[in-house]
Amino acid sequence: MAIMMPASDQTVLARRAEIVAALRAIVPGEGVIDSASEMRAYESDGLTAYRQPPMVVVLPDTTEQVSLVLKYCAGQGIKVVPRGSGTSLSGGALPLEDGVLLGLGKFKRIREIDFDNRVVVTEPGVTNLAISQAVAHAGFYYAPDPSSQIACSIGGNVAENSGGVHCLKYGMTTNNVLGCEIVLMSGEILRIGGKSAENTGYDLMGVITGSEGLLGVITEITVRILQKPETARALMVGFAQVEAAGECVARIIGAGIIPGGMEMMDKPAIHAAEAFVHAGYPLDVEALLIIELDGPKIEVDELITRVETIANACGSTTCQISTSEAERNLFWAGRKAAFPAVGRISPDYLCMDGTIPRGALPKALARIRELSEKYQLGCANVFHAGDGNLHPLILYDANKPGEIERAEAFGADILRACVEFGGVLTGEHGVGIEKRDLMPEMFTEIDLNQQQRLKCAFDAQGLLNPGKVFPTLHRCAELGRMHVHAGKVAFPDIPRF
């Protein structure tokens, strides 16, 4: 699929050989990849419907090298696209034909484990799960746990403000990151935050987290680690109607119970996950809730009784409670593997990401069913029920003419519905290119211009990850500081899309 991106700078492309040589001087050895065949691995991220080979790939392994690469590119007017593990589902790491793809895959060292302050200082290429594994021997873990945690990097988690099953109780990435080292497009190296949860001045960590590679390149991250709860048990509750499952979610939260995680799957997702993982999911239900409760054993036992009572009152047809750690993990295995499981029943799928108020859940699922019929495409629903983060998986076959276009239109209508119901365009996947052109559904032009002014404060030339997030490409001079004469805008050659 083609998508409108900033026009390629032909003067930069004409100097490709010179640029590659200069980058090799900065990152010697195997740090620069410039052959077409070797760069194929970088032509897309997890949103594989869109592909574009980069001009060149650079793989530094020190902060100083990142700084020199960015400083060189800034001086030469060369665009840069930062990339972590490439698991982004919004096209955030889609390369540019005239841009440098800056891969952080070699930044895979944990620099410090500080149990006294309950933090880990890590490089951005370390996987999410590896942080928990590194501290597990002392009874600690890192709470945010995206389904791709075995592969996704912590740097990418910060860029997208990733969540996961346990974000309901323990927060998103932004609630668990305390500091970072960031390199600006100018090459300047900044340290923001640190090991303390309290910092004076502006909340710059809040600005950096979720910035999708538009503000700087993160080369070190300090994250909060938590002590594992004494007890964790899960309930697997089935319902004959999706609406009843939604009501159960609302009543649990309304009762003041905040589970460690609360996930929902509809019937297509249940069947796909069960065939893939064999977790013992009931196949005769329309919706399945997996509810995890953690804390002191006496508290967990009491909460299980209360949740089971609420589920029964909402008309649950099945209820299974884990009796061992192995069984609890098995309950979650199907949910964690839901995305690849759906990949076994459909040649292709689009994984959407939108958020709604919990009370709008039945209405949102009804709208998705209507849209499925309208576009004649199947849809499996897997989502974080506790915080209203939907992940509809739209099933299609890219080899059939017109299906990808219908799938995209279907997905866009789902996201419009999220905004209509009082929600937002994204929960944890970011905007990237997938939702870029839908931003005006949620924000006015004034809102978007103000957001772009923030980018200008970090990247005045607009060289970092251009074409992402903002539906219209501006130069910083355009944002309220340029003169329009006789209805003509200066710099008419600036690409707008």
Automatic annotation (TrEMBL):
Keyword Flavoprotein: yes
GO molecular function: FAD binding; oxidoreductase activity
Keywords attached to this entry: FAD, Flavoprotein, Oxidoreductase
Classification via InterPro entries: FAD-bd_oxidored_4_C, FAD-bd_PCMH, FAD-bd_PCMH-like_sf, FAD-bd_PCMH_sub2, FAD-linked_Oxase-like_C, FAD-linked_OxidoTrans_Type4, Oxid_FAD_bind_N, Vanillyl_alc_oxidase_C-sub2
Domain (FAD-binding PCMH-type) ranges: 50-228
Protein name: FAD-binding protein
SUPFAM superfamilies in UniProt: FAD-binding/transporter-associated domain-like, FAD-linked oxidases, C-terminal domain
Keyword presence, Oxidoreductase: yes
Pfam families to which the protein is assigned, alphabetical: FAD-oxidase_C (PF02913), FAD_binding_4 (PF01565)
Gene3D superfamilies: 3.30.465.10, 3.30.70.2740, Vanillyl-alcohol Oxidase, Chain A, domain 4
Biological classification of the source: Bacteria, Pseudomonadati, Pseudomonadota, Alphaproteobacteria, Hyphomicrobiales
Top-rank lineage group of the source organism: Bacteria
UniProt cofactor(s): FAD
